[in-house]
Amino acid sequence: MRKIDEIIIHCSATPAGRAVTVDDIRRWHMSGRGWRDIGYHYVIHLDGSVHAGRPLSRVGAHCLGHNRGSIGVCYVGGLSANGSTPCDTRTPAQRIALIDLVTRLKHRFPGCTVHGHREFAPKACPCFDAYNEYKDL
């Protein structure tokens, strides 16, 4: 297993309420970007269900310069209903699922830290302050 130092939270940059599946994101990454697989290790759907993406044993493709030692977690959403304004669109179920998943990952990989993609790239993603929200888990 890879050494994991960071959990990096992302959003799918899709409009609030738009259902997107892990297979949709996989298709975007493989067809649109030419990657071998989905870049994220986990995707959290609107209903809070957590879906596996890229296997944890494989380096992700979600945060330039941080992929080797990180796990990429993406929640579906991140844009207002008009599809153009970044905003925190997490459903109550997604909020619960993120806390649960991050807690489980931190127990499995002691010492890892949690970050939002925006800490490492000039983006709004994940459209909330993941570091401060999850620092005490």
Q: Could you give a short description of this structure?
A:
By secondary structure, this protein is an alpha/beta fold.
Describe this structure in words.
This protein is of the alpha/beta class and about 140 residues long. About 25% of the residues lie in helices and about 20% in strands. It has 3 helices and 7 strands, in the order ββαββββαβα. Strands 4-3-5-1-7 form a 5-stranded mixed sheet. A two-stranded parallel ribbon has the order 2-6.
Q: How is the largest sheet built, in terms of strand order?
A: 4-3-5-1-7
Detail the poorly predicted runs.
Answer: none
Order of helices and strands: EEHEEEEHEH
Assembly of the depicted chains: single chain
Distance between the termini: 23 Å
Rounded radius of gyration (Å):
14 Å
Percent helix among the residues?
A: 10-25%
Q: Give a count of the beta strands, DSSP E runs of length 2 or more.
A: 7
Shape: globular
The pLDDT mean sits at 96
Largest sheet: 5 strands, mixed
- Proportion of residues in β-strands: 15-25%
Structural category is alpha/beta
Number of helices: 3
Short descriptors:
single chain, 7 strands, five-stranded mixed β-sheet, globular, 137 residues, alpha/beta, 25% helix, two-stranded parallel ribbon
